[in-house]
Amino acid sequence: MMLATKEIKEILLDKHLLLREIDVEMLEMGTDTKNYLITSTENKKYILKIYEAGLKTELKYELEVLAKLNIQEHIKGKVPSIVHDMFYINDNPCVIYNFIPGRTLIPKDINLVTIEKIAELLANIHLTLADHKPAVVKERFSIFDFSFTNIFKINHHPLSDFIFKSIDSLRKESVLYKNINFRRAIIHEDLSMDNILIDEINQIKFIDFSDSHEAEIVSDLSTLIKEVIMSPKGENVFLIKYFLLNYRKFLSLSSDQIKVIPYLIKRRTVFMLCYLIYKQKINTILDLEKRINREYEILKELNNNINFLYE
Fold first, then answer.
1. What is the end-to-end Cα distance of the chain in Å, rounded?
2. 219 and 133 in one domain?
């Protein structure tokens, strides 16, 4: 459901959610959301997110996570905060959030200072959410589960043989890690360049907690390394180790858990490749070939050098 900005304004006024003097601007769509920037005459800014119907439970989980994070002074303002809790437009759940100033990361932002700040914020989020149990339950794939290939249905794609060979290799490797005692917390799950903001005073902020769920903490670290360090910078071992060093200043992880990271980076790459192929298949309007090819090239490199982090 895509609504015009005039319709959005009328709905918000009718529901008495915001003041009459507002301007509405359509933003880039998320995977499961339609996003709008709301600006008042006092130049206060908010983000309206309209979610797909059927996501009520998952949205409740996300809102509980954000509420927990926003009572922490060292995290407040660095993650989205809720202005108006869940309401509905037609059958679609909606939430209004405070606007978070900043822009998404670009490759030239990825330096030692930025990596240090990202590591500190992520560790503090994990510490805050380590024992948090939202009222609703949210299930996700385990780090040793590859059944997402059944959901994404990639069998007849030209890259399917390559992907399944990669998964076979990962399954064999996963046996080495299944007895590790992993630290767990609610993790973000999708810390990519698009979901990390940097503002004019170089403060780091995380957005879009829609995929958050309880899991092994090292899964979050691996996703961030792959999406924020490796994708723009390649296999920059120094930068990866610097990130891990700074993270472990706040939250300790055993060397056994750290050793799983190359495996999880490869698993994340396989997941993203399957996901992008699936999205391209069900929505031919999207042009995802460049992203698919990029994930393919990364996976080829990882297949040749899965333990690059320990050389």
1. 50
2. yes
pLDDT in tens, 197-254: 999 999 999 999 999 999 999 999 999 999 999 877 677 889 999 999 999 999 999 9
CB atoms within 10 A of CB 58: 19
Given this model, what pLDDT does residue 311 score? 47
29: domain CATH number is: 3.30.200.20
Domain count, the chain: 2
Pick the last residue of a domain from 47, 75, 98. Answer: 98
pTM: 0.91
Q: What is the CATH number of the domain that holds 212?
A: 3.90.1200.10
Enclosing domain of residue 93: 5-98
